[in-house]
Amino acid sequence: MAEERQKLLDEEGGISSSDPRNESGPVKPMSALCDPRQLLHRIFVLLFMCFLGFGSYFCYDNPAALQTQVIQISETKQCVVFGVLSALTRNWLIRTSIGHEAQHIHVHAALCLVLLAQRGALFPGGLPARQGLWNQVIVAVGALLDLFWLMEIGRFVFGIGGESLAVAQNTYAVNWFKGKELNLVFGLQLSMARLGSTVNMNIMGSVYNRVADLVGLTGHTTLGVSLMIAGATCIFSLVCALVLGYLDKRAERILNKEQGGTGEVIKLTDVKDFPFPLWLIFIICVGYYVAIFPFIGLGQVFFIEKFNFSPAEARAINSIVYIISAPASPVLGFMVDRIGKNVIWVLCAVVTTLIAHMMLAFTFWNPWIAMSLLGLSYSLLACALWPMVAFVVPEHQLGTAYGFMQSIQNLGLALISMAAGSILDNKGYLFLEVFFSACVCLALIAVVMLYFVDCLRGGDLNLSASARAKLLKCSNSDSE
Amino acid sequence: MAADIMYTIHFYVLFVLSTLRCSSSFIGNGENYRRNLSLELNPGLNSLLTPLPPGVGLLHVRALGKNNTLHYLLCSQGAPALLLVHTNSTSSKVKVDWPAFLVQNTTGSLKLTPESSVLYSNALVFTRLWEYDDVNDTAVPEHLPPSSFFQPYELQNFTWDDLNKTLDPMAHTALLCGRGASESFSNGSLCLKFSAFDVEGRDQGWPSLLHNANSSQLRVVLDGVVPRSNRSRFSLELQVVGGTQAMSRVDVLQSIDDEYTPSIFKVSQWVSSPVNSTSPVLGYAQWKPVAYRRPSPLFEDATPCRHSTPVPVAQLPPSGLVRAYFGGERQTTGLNMTFSITGDPFYNTTNYLSWTVLVGLGSPPVDSFSPLVLVIMAVGLGTPMLIILLGGVCVCVRKNRPQPQVYEPIN
Questions:
Q1: Within chain B, what is the greatest distance between any pair of CA atoms?
Q2: A301: contact with B, CB 8 A cutoff
Q3: Which stretches of sequence are listed as region Disordered (chain A) (predicted)?
Q4: Which of A160, A412, A437, B227 is close enough to B232 for a disulfide, judged by CB 3.0 to 4.6 Å?
Q5: Digit-coded pLDDT (tens) for A301-335
Q6: Could you report the predicted ipTM of this complex, rounded to two decimals?
Q7: Cis bond leading into B207, ω under 30°?
C-alpha cells in the first residue's frame, strides 16, 4: 500500500517535473548554449540580433556618407536631398501595416518577406523589387546607370524593408528578453545601429576614393560600385536573419510556447485602443528624436561658424553623440534594468537634453560638454523609453505599437528635417536651437504628464526592478 | 490648502509677466527717443552765382533732438565722405562758402555755427577700391606679392551721379552712385546708399543692423563691375578723420544671436574712445563681418569679410569735405575691408557685392533677442513647471484623502 502510494506520488511528481508540454519525447539534457531557457543561449541570439541591425543601418546611412557625391550626380540642392530621401524612406502607412503583422508568431512572416525579397536578387528582373539586399542593389544600379529616380525608388523600398526589420527586431527583443534584460538589449541594439552608422560615415568616403582611383573617374559609375560594395553588408545581415529565424523556430519548438493561442485577433484598428500613457510615450519619442537627428545633420556648420572650429573638429564633435552612445547604451541599459523606475530615467534624459540644447544656444561654453551630455542622454532615453511600450500594451498589440511608434517618429523626423532646413535659411542658428529646445520641452511636458497619469492611475510604469520582478512572479503564479 | 495653491499660481503668473515686461524693456525701448529729420541738398547754394560742376553734391541731414542736434553731411567731391557733427544746441546751422568749397583748398569753407556748440565730429571716407588676383584662393591679400594687385580704383576720380535724382525725403535716404573712367565700369557702378534714422529700428534686408536715432547707415554696393581677372577679389579702403579722438581700434564682439544675420555670430565696432578704457565710447562705425553676393540674398549668398588693423595715415584723405571742415593737422586712421574667404566664389560669379556699415554717435547699439524667442522659451519652460506644480498638488490631495474601505465589516 505504502509502496503503491509512493509509486503514485513518484508518478505524479514525475509527471509534474517532466515537461508536460513536450509531447515529442523525453527531455534531452542540452548544453547551456543550446537551451533556450538559459542565459548563454539568449546571449547567442542577442549577438545575431545585433549584427542584423548593424548591416541594416550601415546601408541606410550610405547616401549621407556620400552626400557630396550624390549631390554632384543629382544636381539637387542640399536640403532637397536631405528632405526627399528622409521623406521617401519613411512611408509610415506601409510600415504600420507591416508592424501589425510582426507579432511574435508572425515575426516569421516579416522575416520570410525579407528573405524572399533577398532571394529575389538571384532572379534578375524576375521578382518585383522588395527589400533588404535587393533594394541596395537597386540603389547601386541606379547610380551605375545615372538614373537618380531609380536610386530614389531603391531608397523608398529600403524604407519599407529597413524599418519593418527594425520593428521585427524590437518585437523579437521583447519576446526573448521581457522581464529579464530588456533595457540592456535595447541599449545594445542602439549601440550596434550607431556603430553601423559611424563605421559607414568613416569608411564610405575612403571606399569611394579607392574605387575612383581604380575606375579612373568620379561620378555615377564610381558611386554605383561603392554602393554595391556596401551591399555586401546586406548579405551579412541576411545571413544573420536566416540564423535568427532558425533559432527562433527551434526555441518555439522546444519550449512549445502557447502565446499564439490566446485567441485574440490582431487588427490595425487596435490603434484606437491604445492607452493614454502609450500616446504620451509616442509624443516623447517624436519630440525627443526630432531634436537630435536633424540637429546632428545640420550641426557641422554651426560649430564652424559659432565656435570657430575647423571642419575636421566640427565633424568630430558632431559624431561624438554616436561615439558616446555606442559604449554607453549597454551600460545605461544594464543600470536601468537593475534599478527600474523607467519614467524617472526618461525624465532625466529629457531634462539633460534640454540643458544641452540651451547651453549650445545661449552660451559660448565649450560645446564638447553639451554634445557629451547629448550623447549620454540619447543613450539613456533609448534604454528607458522603448521597453516601456512593453509594459503598457498587451502582448498581441506589441508589434502594432512598435510599428506605429517607428512610423510617427519617422514622419516627425521627415517633416521636421525639412522645417529645420528652412528655419536655418531664414532665421539662423539661434532660432533653430530655440526650436529644437521647444521640441524637447514638448517631450518634457509629455514625460511629466506620463509620470502623474501613471502615479494617479496606480500604474506600474515607474516600478523599481525588484517590485516589477515581484509583480511578474505573482502574475505568472496566477496564470498557472 | 486651496490658499497655498492660489498663492503658488499667483506667484507664477506674476513671475512670467514681470519676465516679459523686463525682456521687452531689454529689447531696447529704453532708448525710445526720436529725432526730427530734415534733408537738404547743397545748403546755401545759389546755383546761378556758383554753378556746380557735374557730379558734385552735398547732402545735409539735420537730426534735431531735445537739446542737441546731429548733422550728417554726405559729399561726393573727391572721395565720398560722411561727416558726423554733434552740437549741443538746437539751432546750429551749416554754413558753406561755396566758391571756396569748390576750389578745394580752403580750410573752413564749411563751418557749423555756432562753432562753440560742436561737441564731437567725425568723418568716414571711402578712399580706394583694391582689386587683386587671388591665384591660390587664399583671400589674404596681405600675403600676396604686389604683382597680384591691379591698379586700385581711386574713388576721388570717380564721376558721381546727381544726388537730387536719388534723394528720398520721406524715407530719409539717398543713393550716391559713381563710376570710374575705365571700361570695367561701363555697365557697373559703386553705389553708397545712405539712410538716416529718426527712431530705433531694424533694416529689412540683411544684415538687418539695429539702428537708433543717433546713427545712420551706409550700404556699399559694387554692382556690375567687370573684374580684371577670373579670380578677382575686392578690398575696400576706409579712412576716418577724428575730431579730438582718433578711432584707433576695432573691437570684435561675440554675439549669441544670429537671428538677423544667419550664421554670423560676431559684431565688429571701430570705436573712438579715449585711451582709458573706462571712458565711454564717443563715436563708432559698426558692422557685421559679412557681405552679400546678391541683392536679395539667400543663406548661401553670405560671404565673410575681414578687416585689417587700423593704422595711422600721414595725410588727410583726398575728400573735399574733410579738407573744408577739418583742415590742418588731424588724426587720420585707415583700414582695409577684405571681402570673401578661401573657398568662396569669386566676384565674377554674381558680379555683385554689398556691405553695410552703421556710423553713429555714442555707444554702438547692442542686439538682443526678438520677442518671439523669449515667448517660446517662456512657454516651453513654464508649461512643464506648471504641470509639475499642478500634478504635485493633485498627488498630495489624493494621498491626503482618506481611503475608502474596500471591505465593509460584517457587523
A1: 123
A2: yes
A3: 1-28
A4: B227
A5: 889 888 988 888 888 888 888 889 888 988 998 89
A6: 0.82
A7: yes
* CB proximity list for A65: less than 8 A, separation 6 or greater: A200, A201, A204, A205
Q: Which three cell numbers stand for residue B218?
A: 551706409
d(CA B218, CA B191): 10
The CA distance from A164 to A410, in Å, is 12
Measured CA angle at A268 (ends A267, A272), to 5 deg: 105
Cβ within 8 Å of residue B398, ≥6 positions away: A456
Whole-angstrom distance, CA of residue A162 vs CA of residue A166: 6
Nearest to B395 among A428, A445, A455 (CB): A455
* C-alpha cell at position B41: 541738398
The alpha helices in A102-255, defined as continuous H runs, are 107-119, 133-144, 148-177, 182-215, 220-255
Q: How many Å lie between the alpha carbon of B255 and the closest alpha carbon of chain A?
A: 9
Site from B373, B375, B403 to mutate, A interface, most A CB atoms within 10 angstroms: B373
**Contact between residue B213 and residue B86 where contact means Cβ atoms under 8 Å apart:** no
- Interchain CB distance below 8 Å, B256 and A363: yes
Find, among B65, B56, B22, the residue nearest to B158 by Cα. Answer: B56
C-alpha cell at B234: 575686392
Nearest CA-CA distance, residue B324 and chain A, Å: 44
Q: Are B154 and B237 in contact (CB under 8 A)?
A: no
pLDDT digits (tens, 9 = 90+) for B126-158: 999 999 998 888 888 888 888 889 999 999 999
Residues of B in contact with A441 (CB under 8 A): 380-381, 383-384
Is residue A88 classed as helix, strand or coil in its secondary structure? Answer: helix
Secondary structure of chain A: what % helix, strand, coil (to 5)?
80, 0, 20
| Beta carbons of A361 and B256 less than 8 Å apart | yes
- Output the furthest CA–CA distance in chain A (Å, rounded): 94
pLDDT at B352 over 90: yes
The pair phi, psi for residue A460, each rounded to 5°, is -120, 25
Q: Calculate ∠ Cα B39-B40-B42, nearest 5°.
A: 150
- Computed over its alpha carbons, how large is the radius of gyration of chain B? 28
User: Chain B partners of A305 at a C-beta cutoff of 8 Å?
Assistant: 258, 263-265
**What is the C-alpha separation between A202 and B347, in angstroms, rounded?**
35
Contact in structure between B61 and B196 (CB atoms under 8 Å):
yes
Pairs of CB atoms within 8 A across A/B: 73
Candidates B83, B35, B71, B367; CA nearest to B213 is B35
Strand (E) or helix (H) holding A325: helix A311-339
